[in-house]
Design goal:
- With about 475 residues, the protein is an alpha+beta fold.
- It contains 13 helices and 13 strands.
- Strand 12 and strand 13 form a beta hairpin.
- The protein starts with a helix and ends in a 5-residue tail after the last helix.
- About 0% of the residues have low confidence.
Length: about 475
């Protein structure tokens, strides 16, 4: 058979088009290279508790996008196993959850890959997803059976009532339900974005829930007390209303008072902070004072009526005028000796020298038992010291001597301690060199005239004293103490 040139050209073009179309169908549509040769694909095995209606050729999606297909589904001793063939160009993290879903109510199951974290390594060929990371929905037949059983539980006569009441409940709420569904969807999307934080919150919520369970008795007691309070508020409703009505003016008055006290109130509050710290430290002593104060008041009241119903003209405590001089003798140990004490007539006020002056005899001495050496240390039970710093330190109390008088140099005692006593870490002041002795002041003298008794004073004025030259003979000590003429 003879073919013309035109016919041969047409047959060649048709053959080329047939080859191209066949290649496109095999490669693009039937995906023969990927299915037979695995080009551009890799396989991952997913272990499932059950097949769940999954079939060969089902779709595999990742975040709603198709990324592969199910190659085969086979049974195992523990359930089922599905082999997925995935595209190589899509990054899928290995930390994921595999779920089997139905596209419709009658079938068409597909596999959804849900990432749990975007920081994990990607899936690679041969990976196996364990069954604990897989979820298979319940069988549709069991769901329909449960639904039918629930509908049968409703009496047929009342089913219409249920439907009508349901319509009344949601009828006309289309926009609201739409907003509710939309908000729920957005909430689910945000929850998916913050999945790691939500999982951590759920995992770490167990200690909080356990604490709530363990404190259930306290919560019940709190609820009972709250019920008591609310019942009291209901009973005293009128008083509560009066408090709310008059509370505003009272608060305004308090605010005005604080405004008037503003220049001094911060200073007072700042000082109360220090007082509060001292009160906290000495809380035990304050409690003891408050406990013993009523008893002491009762004792004093009993003393004041000691001579009631007697021949005494008054009711009161007995008084004794016995003079107990120097019993016990005063404690001078630990204080400055007389030659170093300042005279009360001095009117200057020099700076106080560092250190403490107090009775420094043994703590079990019979005199001055309530002295500073026996102050109890609140922060160190069982220890006694004169100051807070001595209480807080590890320094032990050492008496200067065991008597009532000085022994040795008061500034360098036999025990090696200084007077005044220095606080822990405090240094003694530097000793100034002794000043050179000053010459005695000159004695003032004036020329005295015995005849007239006149003399000139240091101020240059003339004074008269007629009896300066008289003899003291015949004078007694009474006349010297008694003014003339008496």
């Amino acid at each position: 058979m003879y073919l013309t040139r035109r016919t041969r050209f047409q047959l060649a073009v048709f053959a080329v088009l047939a080859v191209v179309v066949t290649a496109v169908i095999l490669v693009a549509y039937m995906r023969v290279p990927a299915r037979l040769l695995g080009i551009g694909r890799y396989t991952v095995t997913v272990q499932l508790p059950q097949a769940g209606g999954l079939y060969e050729g089902g779709n595999v999606t990742y975040r709603g996008v198709e990324v592969g297909r199910v190659v085969t589904v086979r049974l195992t001793r523990t359930g089922a196993e599905a082999v997925l063939q995935l595209k190589s160009g899509i990054h899928i993290p290995s930390d994921l959850r595999v779920e089997v879903h139905s596209m419709t109510a009658v079938g068409e199951q597909y596999v959804a890959l849900l990432p749990q974290s975007a920081n994990g390594p990607p899936l690679k060929d041969g990976d196996v997803v364990p069954a604990r990371a897989a979820y298979v929905p319940p069988d549709i037949n069991s769901l329909l059976t449960a639904t039918d059983r629930g509908l049968r539980a409703i009496p047929r006569d009342n089913l219409k009532t249920v439907v009508d009441e349901g319509y009344i409940a949601v009828g006309g709420l289309g926009p609201e339900l739409s907003r509710l569904v939309k908000g729920t969807t957005e909430l689910a999307i945000d929850a998916r974005k913050n999945l790691d934080s939500l999982v951590t919150l759920i995992d770490e919520s167990k200690p909080v829930l356990d604490s709530q369970t363990e404190s259930s008795d306290s919560i019940q007691a709190w609820a009972a007390h709250l019920a008591t309070i609310t019942s009291q508020l209901q009973t005293n409703d009128a008083s509560v209303q009066g408090l709310l009505q008059n509370g505003g003016p009272a608060i305004d008055e308090a605010r005005q008072l604080l405004d008037r006290l503003q220049p001094t109130l911060p200073i007072v509050l700042a000082n109360l902070v220090s007082v509060g710290k001292v009160a906290v430290t000495y809380r035990g002593s304050l409690e003891q004072v408050l406990v013993l104060a009523p008893e002491d008041v009762g004792i004093l009241q009993a003393i004041t009526v000691a001579n009631a119903n007697t021949k005494q003209d008054y009711i009161g405590a007995y008084l004794s005028f016995n003079l107990n001089l120097n019993l016990p003798p005063p404690c001078t140990t630990g204080f400055l000796p007389p030659q170093q004490m300042r005279s009360p007539s001095y009117e200057d006020y020099p700076k106080r020298p560092p250190g403490n002056l107090y009775c420094r005899i043994p703590q079990d001495a019979p005199n001055a038992v309530r002295g500073a050496r026996n102050y109890p240390c609140e922060t160190r039970p069982g220890k006694r010291a004169a100051t807070v710093k001595l209480c807080e330190s590890d320094q032990r109390y050492v008496p200067l001597n065991d008597g009532y008088n000085w022994k040795g140099d008061p500034n360098a005692t036999l025990s090696g301690q200084s007077v005044p006593e220095l606080e822990p870490g405090e240094q003694a002041p530097a000793q100034n060199p002794p000043s050179p002795p000053q010459p005695p002041p000159p004695i003032a003298a004036a020329q005295y005239d015995p005849a007239t008794g006149a003399y000139v004073g240091p101020d240059g004025r003339v004074y008269t004293q007629s009896d300066l030259a008289q003899t003291t003979k015949g004078k007694t000590w009474q006349s010297m103490l008694t003014p003339p003429g008496n």
